[in-house]
Amino acid sequence: MKTLEREETGNAGETAPPPGRAADPCLMVIFGAGGDLTKRKLIPALCNLAAAKLLTDRFAIIGFAYNDLTTETFRKQLSEDIRQFATCPVSPEMWDWFLKRIYYVRGDFQDPKAYQQLKEQIAQAEKAHDTPGNHFYYLAVAPKFFGGVVRQLGAAGLASEENGRWRRVIVEKPFGRDLESARALNAELKQVLEERQIYRIDHYLGKETVQNIIMFRFGNGIFEPIWNRRYIDHVQITAAETVGVELRGGYYETAGALRDMVPNHLFQLVSLTAMEPPISFHADSVRDDQAKALHAIQPPTPEEVLTMTVRGQYGEGRMGEERVPAYRAEPNVAPDSSTETFVALKLRIDNWRWADVPFYLRTGKRLAKRATEIAVQFKRAPFQLFRNTSVESLQTNRLVVRIQPDEGISLRFGAKVPGPIMRMGAVEMDFNYVDYFGSTPSTGYERLIYDCMIGDATLFQRADMVEAGWSVITPVLDVWKALPPRAFPNYAAGSWGPKEADDLLARDGREWRKIE
Ligand code: BG6
User: What b/e string do you get for 399-436 counting C-beta neighbours within 10 Å, with b at 16 or more?
Assistant: First the structure.
């Protein structure tokens, strides 16, 4: 599609900073600072924020972990890691500025004494960098530690907000394993923290194209009037990965594709696609409408679980030229594992906007192509004007929001094929982010970390949203647990998943969009 001249001013080709003022002066504590997330995402994201001048000089970071490191060796290690994981050039001056603000405390998350050491280190860093007592704690730790760390923070007096200072906690996923455990974790955190202090992160909300769904729907006048059951036939949401379980077999065996992707990432996409227009862009206003959409998804009955859900596990196969092993042959996976690596679901959203418009979801590992997208399939034209002509079948309109890897939006419609006879062809209007705005080499965490520092929780999950998601998924988990899969593995690596996923749509006279 030929693009219009850009009216908006942006920074094509540069780091894309969230627009606005520099973050509040504050101190960040990373629990589990020795892990992958810190070096791969958090430190590169903080560098990008610093490069975009969104951090003030009154900022410091304390890494807290069990690894045998000191401030000096931690700084050294990060200096090596940043070479590999930076998404933008990091100048020596900038890195120097950054490094001076990084400290390390070695300790056991369950040991109260370690929190006293942390407190001392915080006091020193606050003095050195003149931070005014605002802290945020990033829990990059195994979920079993979430509740304990927060309790210890409370006991050490590090969680209470006094004299205008804020204290916030970012909690990574997975947030619970089912409805009961998610409720219990929410209750545990709330013994120490107020809901407004809890930032439940979902990295999908850090993706530009996911944030763009709100802009696309509510910043334009032409889509919202047709965004309902009158015009939309159904919605397909796909999150397909080509990678296998990699080295995460230990975790994945306890999770599976359903827990790993659906109540969090895919439900974010569902709620943004299905929500009513919020009355303002205030965090709670947006999240109220997201939560309402999630509450409208009908939890399936046990019978419906059998007809509306499909699970799969990859066997060996080919990814391009390469032969790849079956899931059961991956490291730390049981040779007779019944963990699913693929899931497809049909959801019903029972409200006035979406009654009778199914939302089909599918996600899996070792699929034929990496692609995350939302495809909105519109209904056929109501009157078949071309019925008795040589125009046999009218193509339906379809809007596809491509989230990754190539980000953009395309709209398919029918057009007359030039020539003396009436023939219709499907054509596409295609908008590509890169063509229009340049590439934005971010980690996806910049915006989320920055938002936490300025106290904007719009892109974080609230307790009720998490619980609403689990209340839909838990009945599926229960039935699946009671009826172990009979025919795993049931799809070859490099394919589009098990045949049953195609049958799920075929029963409704539909098919999955072919993603080329
Ligand atoms: C993570 C899951 O939350 O999301 C992974 O644990 C998955 O299994 C990943 O691969 C997908 O994220 P993205 O950003 O690559 O779509």
Answer: bbbbbbeebbbbbbebeeeeeeeeebeeeeeeeebeee
Torsion sign (Cα): 388, 391, 396, 397: negative
Query: Is 234 one of the annotated active-site residues of the chain?
Result: no
Q: Atom of ligand 1 at shortest distance to CA of 264?
A: 3
Q: Which is the catalytic residue, given 129, 135, 234, 265? A: 265
Q: Which protein residues are within 6 Å of ligand 1, measured from CB? A: 173, 241, 260, 372
Contact 366, 516 (CB under 8 A): no
Tell me which residue has its CA closest to atom 14 in ligand 1: 204
Looking at the DSSP bridge assignments, the partners of residue 461 are 200
DSSP 329: G
Average pLDDT over all residues of the chain: 93
For 5-46, the pLDDT digits (tens) are 444 433 333 334 445 789 999 999 999 999 999 999 999 999
Element spanning 73, H or E: helix 71-85
CA nearest neighbour of 202 among 364, 476, 444: 444
Contact 171, 202 (CB under 8 A): no
pLDDT in tens, 86-136: 998 999 999 999 999 999 999 999 999 999 999 999 999 999 999 999 999
| Torsion on CA atoms 173, 175, 176, 178, rounded to nearest 10 | -100
**Å from CA of 186 to ligand 1 middle:** 23
Q: How far apart are CA 458 and CA 399, in angstroms?
A: 26
Residue 310 to residue 480: CA distance in whole angstroms: 10
Residue the block writes with tokens 């596809």:
400
Residues in the chain: 516
Q: Which is nearest to 206 in space by CA: 182, 256, 172?
A: 172
Strand partners, 234: 377
The model's pTM is 0.93
Cα 243 to the chain's mean position, in Å?
17
Atom of ligand 1 nearest to the CA of 248: 8
- pLDDT, residue 11, reads 36
Which among 172, 205, 209, 261 is the best mutation to test ligand 1's pocket, defined by most ligand atoms within 8 Å of the CB? Answer: 261
CA dihedral of residues 205, 143, 366, 475 (deg, nearest 10): -90
pLDDT at 417 > cutoff 90? no
Taking the chain, what is the end-to-end CA distance rounded to the nearest angstrom?
19
Ligand 1 center to 74 CA (angstroms): 27
